[in-house]
Amino acid sequence: GAQFCCLRTFLGQEECAKTLVKSCADCIKSGPKCAWCKQLDYIKQGEPEWKRCDTEAKLKQSFCNETNIIFPSSHHILLANKPLSTNRRHQDQNNVRREPVQVQPQEVQLLLRPGLQHSFQIRFRLAEDYPVDLYYLMDLSYSMNDDLNNVKRLGNSLLRTLRQITSRARIGFGSFVDKTVLPFTNTNPDRLKKPCPEKENQCQPAFGFKHVLSLTENGDEFNHEVAAQNISGNLDQPEGSLDAIMQSVVCGVGIGWGNSTRLLVLTTDAGFHMAGDGKLGSIFEPNDGKCHLDESLTYSKNNEMDYPSVGQVANKLAENNIQAIFAVTKNVEPVYTRLKEIIPKSEVGVLSNDSSNVVELIKGAYNKLSSNVILSHDELPEGITVHYTSDCDGGHTPSPRGICNNVGIGKEVVFTVTVTALECMEKKTFNIGPLGFREKTKVNVETRCQCECDDDLSADKKRCSGHGRINCGACSCDLGYMGHKCDCKVGDKDETHLKEACRPDNMTAECSGQGECTCGQCMCHSGADGRIIYGQYCNCNDRDCEVHNNKLCGGNGKCRCNVCICDTGYEGSACQCKISTQACRKGDGSVCSNRGKCECNSCHCQGGYKPPLCETCPGCPSPCPAAASCIECLGFEKGPLRKNCTQSCGHIQHKTVANLTAKKPCRERDSEGCWMVFTMNELNGFDNYGVVILDKRECPEPVSIGAVVGGAFAGVALIGLLILITIKGIMRYQDLQEYKKFEQERSKNVSPMYQAATTTVLNPNYTGD
Fold it and tell me: Which residues form the Integrin beta subunit tail domain (predicted)?
């Protein structure tokens, strides 16, 4: 469906925008107050079909017969509308009990014009003797030991109190503690079996939530089942209250909730864990909001799923029409008071230390809940909004919920429900009803986005050139023809190519949305306010220019194709300024330091320079390094640019001085390694400088060649002498060692040259004779 944003206000009057309106359906979708004239002779030859689309008042003023004006309006039809029950007991003439009717109507059909609000009424009367179901959900952690003893005798007393309100009252019972994993419960096997102190003999094993007794009218049965319950325990202070509430609400079959006023009474002396706390016990799976009671009626996913969030609990209570009563001790009353603000139709009461006042507490809370009527809806379909008013005190201001306080039994209250469809849509359904009650009004919504026209079919052939048929006064052409009267034959080019010729690019609407594409050419509309639209693509008009002082082009120019053409002596995008450069001029007469344009007597600087006069450039680098070569040739006639210094350095005006007084002059090295000292002052324009150069460079003293050569020779000679001395020393040492050895051998009377014989030769012929 299309969004309805196109009805606009022009000069205090409603106007229907004509963008892309080609048919009655397009017109109806273009705005909630737009109507279509189906009168055949309403538009003249050459006029576009969109002229048929306007408000009812405008069409009547332009002589469209009222019977030819198509304006689908919103209305509703009551599909089920049983009367509200009286204050008598709900029995028919045969004394057969029948269910009371507290909400009227029971079903309604809405036919809505998108963007147009429509209202209908819902009536509510709190019936006498309406059944009440009360489920008592008790914290059985050890700190509630005294309270359990009193609750064991509570059944008949509680039923007697409820039967003062209704003859059909039922009560049930459930209990809870917490998850049985660390750090919530001691997981020692012995402590899981008996989480209570040693002195406590009657103690049941640790558990999460347990359904004990389904809703019953028997108070003795309540007392018997509760009497069999024992206290249990856990480690930390908060309890698994939200787990228990969730299972009590969604396990409707097991609990036994009926068609009744449903009350859930939670009694505890501690706060509650919520979504995310389960991660402390390594439980990461989010709560799914479903029933998980096993055969023993115990919550089977207690240690597998995280606690539910407060939002989940609030939604499930509302979905199941259950009203919560938090009967808590004084120390946690602030916690549950905050919870009451999040959960509608809930009350908080303060328990005595032993819960002895619980019956009176429940009675008071029920009276408050039943006397406060809150009318609300379930989740709305996309594109539908609802708000409420009522005939109650303070109910005349529209709000997201209808609220009436102090509504007694038999008192009828009337809510006005206003529904708006924001767009065209298929059939949608949602429910509206008082919170805490099962009765609802079913609302079916359909949108009226098509025109229902009774056309004169005999005019088809003449009106549509024999190539189409009349549809709400306009021609719907046969295949191969187009145009207002189906008189343009497409020929070799298909309609897509012809329409492309009417768009400057793929992102722009055909003829800029301000004309009709006829055989590949734009036929521009007249503007809704009389403006002339022109241009190849109907993209020009002489009114969509900038406005200054509520005047087009400031009253100092003419609008031409959406751009202001200023009169002589004016400038600016809206011709809002007289041409003047007074505030842009410096003392030397230059405008914006020749680094920008003066527009509307203000400098618009370029190249990073800043207003007001484009004199400073905070982000620009220092010019000193880049100017070094020019300083060298201008001041000292040296360097790589000395041959063409005038041409290369024409942007620098220089002078040479004997002394510089600047605090931070530039210091740059020249090609000879000398330091040049100078100052630079930026002149008007870009890269123009005035330079003052110190006439002397700071050069290092020249090196003495003789000293260097002499030193080199002396060094070499010294090194050679040291080498000779070293060699001589080594030889001397070796001689001394040899001499020492010689002296040692001589002292033994052995000639150092003597060597003993090592071979003996015998004459074999010698006989000794």
Answer: 624-704
